[in-house]
Every structure is written in C-alpha cells, then in structure tokens.
UniProtKB/TrEMBL annotation:
Cofactor: Zn(2+)
CC annotations in GO: bacterial nucleoid
Subcellular location: Cytoplasm, Nucleoid
Complex formation: Homotetramer. Interacts with both DnaA and DnaN, acting as a bridge between these two proteins.
Matches recorded under Pfam families: YabA (PF06156)
One of the GO BP terms on file: negative regulation of DNA replication
Cofactor binding mode and count: Binds 1 zinc ion per subunit.
Annotated keywords: Cytoplasm, DNA replication, DNA replication inhibitor, Metal-binding, Zinc
Organism the protein comes from: Salibacterium salarium
GO molecular function: zinc ion binding
Record NCBIfam families: PRK13169.1-5
InterPro entries: YabA (IPR010377)
Binding site residues for Zn(2+): 89, 91, 104, 107
Protein name: Replication initiation control protein YabA
Length: 114
C-alpha cells in the first residue's frame, strides 16, 4: 500500500469518526430529553396516586366518621391548594396535569369557591 493511499484512508476514517461523534451528540440530547420527560411523568403519576389515596381515605372516613366531614373537606381543600402551588391543575378541565403556562383561571376560581 502506498503511503499516499494510507494517508487518504486515515483522512476518510477521521471524517467518519467526526460524523459518528455528531450523531452520538444528537442521541445524547434526545436521551436527556427523554429522561426529563420520564421524570416529569413519574412525578405526575406519583401525585395522581397520592390524590387517589387521599380520595379513598377521605371516602372511607366519611362513611365511618360522619362527624369529621367538615375537617376532611378542609384538609382536601388544603391538599388541592398545595398541589396547585406545586404546579398541577386541579380544575375539571385539566385535572392532575402539569400547569405549563402559569396560573390557570379555572383552577383559581375552583380554589376561591370555598
Ligand atoms: Zn387548571
């Protein structure tokens, strides 16, 4: 093999490695986005599960301890307010999903109903 030929092969290989490197960088970006999205979904899922648990618990305590109805309702309202301030919808329109665009008028009117 001539030196010139070897040299051109090395150049060619270097170009291909450059392309691989770029593709790897793009894949890394996509992976980071997927991890972020997965994290957000896991958080949302956890909050929804907590809400379901609270709902079950308050329904059970309503059945067995009707004298504590008022306390349970107040507690439920606090939980919803906390959830809203953590960035989730509590309104009928988007219940349980992330508030991506600041305050939600539906949520606020729901919070102020009490
Ligand atoms: Zn809302």
């Amino acid at each position: 093999m001539e030196k010139k030929e070897i040299f051109s092969q090395v150049i060619h290989m270097e170009e291909r490695i450059g392309t691989f490197h770029d593709e790897l960088g793009e894949l890394k970006e996509q992976l980071a986005m997927l991890i972020e999205e997965n994290h957000a979904l896991a958080m949302e899922n956890q909050h929804l599960r907590e809400l379901l648990d609270e709902k079950d618990t308050s329904e059970q305590s309503n059945e067995t301890e009707s004298s504590q109805d008022k306390a349970t309702v107040g507690e439920g309202h606090d939980n919803l307010a906390r959830l809203y301030h953590e960035g989730f919808h509590i309104c009928n329109m988007h219940y349980g999903s992330l508030r991506a665009e600041g305050d939600c008028l539906f949520c606020l009117s729901f919070l102020n109903q009490k």
